[in-house]
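Thanks for the sequence, V.! I ran SpdD protein right away. Repeating your input here for the record:
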Amino acid sequence: MPSAGRSVSPLVGRGASAVAAVLVIGVVLTALLATVAITAVSVSIAALVLRSLLNSAPKR
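Predicted structure:
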């Protein structure tokens, strides 16, 4: 129970901002992870296409 002279609202405000900061950091890290995954897939597809083109070049 808080004493009569103290207010609980600053503590609640700090807790809410901490939760918001954690959520924002989580969203940013998730977006970075998704970007890395998409880039890896794109590079692997490009490597497969390039390998296919290089392997079929002498047969032409």
